[in-house]
Amino acid sequence: MELTLKSLSPLAYGALNCRKNFAMASPRMRIKQGRSELPNLTITSKIDELQVTERRSANYHPSIWDPKFIESLSTPYTNEGYSNQLEDLKEEAKRVIKDARDTSSRLEFIDSMQRLGVAYHLEEEIKEAIDLVHLDDTTTDDLSTTALRFRLLRQHGYPVSSEVFDQFRSKDGRFMDGISQDIAGPLSLYEASHLGVEGEDDLEEARRFSTIHLKSLVGNLESNLADQVQQSLEVPLHWRMPRLEARNFIDIYQRRNTKNSALLELAKLDYNLVQSSYQTELKELTR
Protein backbone atom coordinates (compact mmCIF):
# COMPACT_ATOMS: atom_id res chain seq x y z
CA MET A 1 0.00 0.00 0.00
CA GLU A 2 1.46 3.36 -0.99
CA LEU A 3 1.29 6.34 1.40
CA THR A 4 0.54 9.81 0.04
CA LEU A 5 1.92 12.67 2.15
CA LYS A 6 1.07 16.19 1.15
CA SER A 7 1.91 18.17 4.26
CA LEU A 8 5.44 16.92 5.01
CA SER A 9 8.76 18.07 3.59
CA PRO A 10 10.52 15.85 1.02
CA LEU A 11 13.12 14.91 3.63
CA ALA A 12 10.51 13.86 6.17
CA TYR A 13 8.56 11.97 3.53
CA GLY A 14 11.64 10.05 2.42
CA ALA A 15 12.48 9.13 6.00
CA LEU A 16 9.01 7.69 6.54
CA ASN A 17 9.25 5.59 3.37
CA CYS A 18 12.66 4.37 4.55
CA ARG A 19 11.18 3.16 7.85
CA LYS A 20 8.23 1.53 6.05
CA ASN A 21 10.46 -0.53 3.73
CA PHE A 22 12.76 -1.51 6.58
CA ALA A 23 9.83 -2.75 8.67
CA MET A 24 8.63 -4.93 5.76
CA ALA A 25 12.03 -6.61 5.40
CA SER A 26 13.05 -9.83 7.22
CA PRO A 27 14.01 -9.13 10.85
CA ARG A 28 17.08 -11.34 10.53
CA MET A 29 20.18 -10.34 8.69
CA ARG A 30 21.49 -13.03 6.38
CA ILE A 31 25.14 -13.88 6.66
CA LYS A 32 26.63 -14.52 3.27
CA GLN A 33 30.35 -14.96 2.49
CA GLY A 34 31.48 -13.43 5.78
CA ARG A 35 29.52 -10.24 5.49
CA SER A 36 26.12 -9.02 6.61
CA GLU A 37 23.44 -8.30 4.10
CA LEU A 38 20.84 -5.64 4.91
CA PRO A 39 17.52 -5.38 3.11
CA ASN A 40 17.47 -2.84 0.30
CA LEU A 41 15.88 0.45 1.39
CA THR A 42 14.03 2.48 -1.18
CA ILE A 43 13.52 6.23 -0.69
CA THR A 44 10.92 7.81 -2.90
CA SER A 45 10.12 11.46 -3.45
CA LYS A 46 6.72 13.09 -3.76
CA ILE A 47 7.82 16.67 -4.36
CA ASP A 48 5.22 17.13 -7.07
CA GLU A 49 2.46 16.24 -4.64
CA LEU A 50 3.50 18.73 -1.93
CA GLN A 51 1.14 21.62 -1.34
CA VAL A 52 2.95 24.96 -1.18
CA THR A 53 1.38 27.34 1.35
CA GLU A 54 1.95 31.03 0.62
CA ARG A 55 3.32 32.90 3.65
CA ARG A 56 1.04 35.63 4.89
CA SER A 57 2.37 39.17 4.90
CA ALA A 58 2.06 41.37 7.99
CA ASN A 59 2.20 44.48 5.79
CA TYR A 60 4.79 46.19 7.98
CA HIS A 61 5.53 49.78 7.10
CA PRO A 62 9.00 50.53 5.75
CA SER A 63 11.52 51.58 8.38
CA ILE A 64 11.88 55.32 8.91
CA TRP A 65 15.54 54.73 9.74
CA ASP A 66 17.36 55.28 6.47
CA PRO A 67 20.74 53.45 6.50
CA LYS A 68 22.50 56.57 5.23
CA PHE A 69 21.02 58.61 8.07
CA ILE A 70 22.16 56.05 10.62
CA GLU A 71 25.68 56.06 9.19
CA SER A 72 25.72 59.86 9.38
CA LEU A 73 25.14 59.88 13.14
CA SER A 74 28.15 61.23 14.95
CA THR A 75 29.03 62.45 18.43
CA PRO A 76 32.17 63.86 20.02
CA TYR A 77 31.56 61.83 23.19
CA THR A 78 33.76 58.76 23.58
CA ASN A 79 34.83 56.84 26.65
CA GLU A 80 38.46 57.36 25.72
CA GLY A 81 38.15 61.13 25.42
CA TYR A 82 36.03 61.70 28.52
CA SER A 83 37.12 58.90 30.88
CA ASN A 84 39.13 61.22 33.15
CA GLN A 85 36.32 63.77 33.44
CA LEU A 86 33.83 60.99 34.13
CA GLU A 87 35.96 59.58 36.95
CA ASP A 88 36.42 63.03 38.51
CA LEU A 89 32.67 63.68 38.51
CA LYS A 90 31.97 60.25 39.98
CA GLU A 91 34.38 60.94 42.84
CA GLU A 92 32.71 64.29 43.48
CA ALA A 93 29.27 62.65 43.54
CA LYS A 94 30.55 60.05 46.02
CA ARG A 95 31.72 62.82 48.35
CA VAL A 96 28.35 64.53 48.09
CA ILE A 97 26.38 61.52 49.27
CA LYS A 98 28.90 60.67 51.99
CA ASP A 99 28.76 64.24 53.33
CA ALA A 100 24.98 64.12 53.76
CA ARG A 101 24.38 64.33 57.52
CA ASP A 102 20.66 63.75 57.87
CA THR A 103 18.07 61.35 56.52
CA SER A 104 16.23 63.95 54.47
CA SER A 105 19.40 64.94 52.57
CA ARG A 106 20.37 61.33 51.94
CA LEU A 107 16.93 60.57 50.57
CA GLU A 108 17.02 63.53 48.21
CA PHE A 109 20.46 62.59 46.86
CA ILE A 110 19.57 58.92 46.38
CA ASP A 111 16.33 59.78 44.59
CA SER A 112 18.07 62.33 42.36
CA MET A 113 20.88 59.93 41.45
CA GLN A 114 18.41 57.22 40.50
CA ARG A 115 16.24 59.50 38.40
CA LEU A 116 19.28 61.07 36.71
CA GLY A 117 20.41 57.61 35.62
CA VAL A 118 23.80 57.63 37.38
CA ALA A 119 23.03 55.37 40.34
CA TYR A 120 24.87 52.46 38.72
CA HIS A 121 28.13 54.42 39.10
CA LEU A 122 27.57 54.77 42.86
CA GLU A 123 26.06 51.47 43.97
CA GLU A 124 28.26 51.02 47.07
CA GLU A 125 27.75 54.57 48.29
CA ILE A 126 24.00 54.36 47.76
CA LYS A 127 23.89 51.03 49.59
CA GLU A 128 25.66 52.57 52.59
CA ALA A 129 23.35 55.58 52.56
CA ILE A 130 20.17 53.53 52.28
CA ASP A 131 21.38 51.34 55.17
CA LEU A 132 21.65 54.46 57.32
CA VAL A 133 18.18 55.57 56.24
CA HIS A 134 16.77 52.18 57.20
CA LEU A 135 18.43 52.25 60.63
CA ASP A 136 17.10 55.74 61.33
CA ASP A 137 13.49 55.08 62.35
CA THR A 138 12.94 58.58 63.69
CA THR A 139 9.36 59.65 63.07
CA THR A 140 8.82 62.85 61.12
CA ASP A 141 5.63 64.80 60.59
CA ASP A 142 6.69 65.72 57.04
CA LEU A 143 4.60 63.70 54.59
CA SER A 144 6.97 64.25 51.68
CA THR A 145 9.99 62.85 53.56
CA THR A 146 8.01 59.96 55.05
CA ALA A 147 6.65 58.92 51.66
CA LEU A 148 10.04 59.27 49.95
CA ARG A 149 11.68 57.11 52.63
CA PHE A 150 8.96 54.48 52.22
CA ARG A 151 9.33 54.42 48.42
CA LEU A 152 13.12 54.19 48.36
CA LEU A 153 13.30 51.52 51.05
CA ARG A 154 10.78 49.37 49.19
CA GLN A 155 12.57 49.90 45.89
CA HIS A 156 15.77 48.60 47.47
CA GLY A 157 14.07 45.62 49.08
CA TYR A 158 13.99 46.76 52.71
CA PRO A 159 11.02 45.79 54.89
CA VAL A 160 8.94 48.84 55.71
CA SER A 161 5.31 48.90 56.78
CA SER A 162 2.64 51.11 55.28
CA GLU A 163 1.68 51.93 58.86
CA VAL A 164 4.19 54.79 58.67
CA PHE A 165 1.34 56.80 57.11
CA ASP A 166 -1.04 56.25 60.02
CA GLN A 167 0.06 59.51 61.64
CA PHE A 168 -1.41 61.39 58.67
CA ARG A 169 -4.84 59.84 59.13
CA SER A 170 -7.73 61.03 61.25
CA LYS A 171 -9.56 58.82 63.75
CA ASP A 172 -11.92 57.56 61.06
CA GLY A 173 -8.94 56.21 59.05
CA ARG A 174 -9.05 58.82 56.29
CA PHE A 175 -6.12 60.99 55.31
CA MET A 176 -6.38 64.47 56.80
CA ASP A 177 -7.13 67.24 54.31
CA GLY A 178 -4.54 69.52 55.88
CA ILE A 179 -1.64 67.48 54.50
CA SER A 180 -2.66 68.29 50.94
CA GLN A 181 -1.90 72.00 51.07
CA ASP A 182 1.76 71.52 50.06
CA ILE A 183 2.04 69.88 46.63
CA ALA A 184 5.22 67.97 47.61
CA GLY A 185 3.35 65.88 50.18
CA PRO A 186 0.55 64.50 47.98
CA LEU A 187 2.94 64.01 45.06
CA SER A 188 5.38 62.00 47.16
CA LEU A 189 2.50 60.01 48.67
CA TYR A 190 1.12 59.29 45.21
CA GLU A 191 4.48 57.92 44.00
CA ALA A 192 4.91 55.83 47.16
CA SER A 193 1.45 54.29 46.81
CA HIS A 194 2.57 52.46 43.67
CA LEU A 195 4.99 50.37 45.74
CA GLY A 196 2.16 48.64 47.54
CA VAL A 197 1.55 44.90 47.53
CA GLU A 198 -1.64 42.89 47.42
CA GLY A 199 -3.78 43.41 50.46
CA GLU A 200 -2.46 46.85 51.41
CA ASP A 201 -5.77 48.66 51.17
CA ASP A 202 -4.35 51.66 53.00
CA LEU A 203 -2.02 52.35 50.08
CA GLU A 204 -4.92 52.06 47.66
CA GLU A 205 -6.67 54.70 49.75
CA ALA A 206 -3.47 56.79 49.70
CA ARG A 207 -3.45 56.64 45.91
CA ARG A 208 -7.09 57.72 45.63
CA PHE A 209 -6.60 60.54 48.13
CA SER A 210 -3.42 61.89 46.50
CA THR A 211 -4.82 61.59 42.98
CA ILE A 212 -7.88 63.66 43.86
CA HIS A 213 -5.84 66.42 45.48
CA LEU A 214 -3.15 66.50 42.77
CA LYS A 215 -5.80 66.95 40.09
CA SER A 216 -7.41 69.74 42.08
CA LEU A 217 -4.09 71.57 42.58
CA VAL A 218 -2.44 71.12 39.19
CA GLY A 219 -4.27 74.07 37.63
CA ASN A 220 -2.84 76.48 40.22
CA LEU A 221 0.81 75.45 39.89
CA GLU A 222 3.54 77.16 37.93
CA SER A 223 4.18 75.49 34.56
CA ASN A 224 7.24 73.38 35.41
CA LEU A 225 5.74 71.90 38.55
CA ALA A 226 2.39 71.43 36.82
CA ASP A 227 4.14 69.44 34.07
CA GLN A 228 5.77 67.17 36.67
CA VAL A 229 2.46 66.50 38.37
CA GLN A 230 0.75 65.79 35.07
CA GLN A 231 3.52 63.38 34.07
CA SER A 232 3.19 61.50 37.35
CA LEU A 233 -0.56 61.22 37.00
CA GLU A 234 -0.11 59.74 33.53
CA VAL A 235 2.94 57.52 34.25
CA PRO A 236 4.13 57.10 37.87
CA LEU A 237 7.87 56.96 38.50
CA HIS A 238 7.79 53.25 39.28
CA TRP A 239 6.44 52.51 35.79
CA ARG A 240 8.88 54.63 33.77
CA MET A 241 11.84 53.45 31.72
CA PRO A 242 15.01 54.57 33.58
CA ARG A 243 16.94 55.87 30.57
CA LEU A 244 14.01 57.92 29.28
CA GLU A 245 13.37 59.24 32.78
CA ALA A 246 17.04 60.29 33.00
CA ARG A 247 16.65 62.58 29.98
CA ASN A 248 13.40 63.96 31.35
CA PHE A 249 14.72 64.54 34.87
CA ILE A 250 17.92 66.28 33.73
CA ASP A 251 15.76 69.16 32.50
CA ILE A 252 13.80 69.21 35.76
CA TYR A 253 16.83 68.94 38.03
CA GLN A 254 18.81 71.74 36.41
CA ARG A 255 15.96 74.18 37.13
CA ARG A 256 16.04 73.41 40.85
CA ASN A 257 17.64 75.92 43.18
CA THR A 258 18.95 73.06 45.33
CA LYS A 259 20.68 71.21 42.46
CA ASN A 260 24.22 69.89 42.88
CA SER A 261 26.38 71.03 39.97
CA ALA A 262 28.70 68.01 40.01
CA LEU A 263 25.80 65.58 40.02
CA LEU A 264 24.12 67.44 37.17
CA GLU A 265 27.32 67.44 35.07
CA LEU A 266 27.81 63.74 35.75
CA ALA A 267 24.27 63.01 34.57
CA LYS A 268 24.71 65.00 31.36
CA LEU A 269 28.07 63.42 30.53
CA ASP A 270 26.84 59.93 31.32
CA TYR A 271 23.76 60.40 29.16
CA ASN A 272 25.85 61.58 26.20
CA LEU A 273 28.32 58.70 26.56
CA VAL A 274 25.54 56.12 26.74
CA GLN A 275 23.82 57.67 23.73
CA SER A 276 27.11 57.52 21.82
CA SER A 277 27.40 53.83 22.66
CA TYR A 278 23.87 53.21 21.40
CA GLN A 279 24.64 55.00 18.13
CA THR A 280 27.75 52.89 17.59
CA GLU A 281 25.79 49.69 18.19
CA LEU A 282 23.04 50.85 15.83
CA LYS A 283 25.59 51.46 13.05
CA GLU A 284 27.02 47.99 13.54
CA LEU A 285 23.59 46.39 13.29
CA THR A 286 22.78 48.10 9.98
CA ARG A 287 25.93 46.94 8.20
TrEMBL record:
> Residues in domain Terpene synthase N-terminal?
64-233
Any one GO MF annotation of this record: terpene synthase activity
The record's annotation in Pfam families points to: Terpene_synth
Coiled coil where? 79-106
Alphabetized, the UniProt keywords read: Coiled coil, Lyase, Magnesium
Q: GO BP, one example?
A: terpenoid biosynthetic process
Q: What is this protein called?
A: Terpene synthase N-terminal domain-containing protein
Taxonomic source organism = Vitis vinifera (Grape)
Q: What is the lineage of its organism?
A: Eukaryota, Viridiplantae, Streptophyta, Embryophyta, Tracheophyta
